[in-house]
Amino acid sequence: MEADSLFAGARLAASGSGPLYRQVKRELQGLIERGRYAPGDTLPSESVISRALGVSVGTLRRAVDELVHENILVRRQGRGTFVALHGHERFLFQFFHVEPRLDAPHVPRREREFPVVECIGFARGRADETEAAALLVHAGEPVWRIDNRLSLGGQPVVHDRIVIPAASFKGIAEKRFRERPSTVYSFYQTEFGITVLRVQERARAVSASVGPARILRLDAGAPILEVHRIALTFNDKPVEYRVSSIHTAAHDYVSVLSTH
């Protein structure tokens, strides 16, 4: 579809709502959010889009820069600008933060490792107060609860309890979820058009309760790290609440902060 027709009706002006590049950013983000440009699609050239919107290439580039920084778009040298896709590499470097400890005894030093994921629970229920507050839904609304065990180096290291609102994931099937070829966030994106852009996390040291201890093959009461995550899509809408129980005897939770 031609960029001129996609941007038909756009009214961008210096007197509009906010700086001009922010108006351009909203136009681009709106097209992506509505699926006019799907994950993996290539955007038209900067000159084509800027002409369609009646703005300078510099203004457009500033808008695109922000969308790249927010992981909505990705630039590939010599190939163009694409709508960001979720995949193994993005999962490993943006959303999975568990790495072998450098000083852990009896653990060989190795590169970052993609975990082996085993789905051990998949059930429909109703949101409790904590889940409802995290997902911005009413307590008692239908949700799906999914339990995954993640192993590194052949040993269970993470138990994820994932809670998603049933209203946003209509038609989700356990068999399809278990057989998905890629990551959970890729599954959300390709099957339901839900793109996780960023997450909010809180971490605390706790003693393992019976459930996580059994799943991680630990004694109840063993020390673990518990990470509470809310995954957000466009307009900071929460689409997933996740509690990760992490066995840290030989692994660390590593967060890399951007300087931007």
Describe the model:
With 260 residues, this protein is α+β, with helices and mostly antiparallel strands. Helices cover 29% and strands 29% of the residues. The chain is built from nine helices and ten strands. A six-stranded antiparallel sheet has the order 4-5-6-9-8-7. A two-stranded antiparallel ribbon has the order 1-2. A two-stranded antiparallel sheet has the order 3-10.
Annotation field: number of helices: 9
Whole-angstrom Rg? 21 Å
- The H/E string reads HHHHEEHEEHEEHHEHEEE
Percent of sequence in beta strands:
25-35%
Secondary structural class? alpha+beta
Q: Helicity level, as a percent range?
A: 25-40%
Strand tally, please? 10
Quickly list its features.
alpha+beta; 6-stranded antiparallel sheet; 10 strands; about 30% helix
Write the layout of secondary structure elements.
Blueprint: H1 3-6, H2 20-33, H3 46-53, H4 57-69, E1 73-76, E2 80-83, H5 88-95, E3 98-100, E4 116-126, H6 129-135, E5 142-152, E6 155-165, H7 174-178, H8 184-192, E7 198-207, H9 210-216, E8 223-232, E9 238-246, E10 251-253
Antiparallel strand pairs: 1-2, 3-10, 4-5, 5-6, 6-9, 7-8, 8-9
Q: TL;DR of this structure?
A:
The chain is of the alpha+beta class.
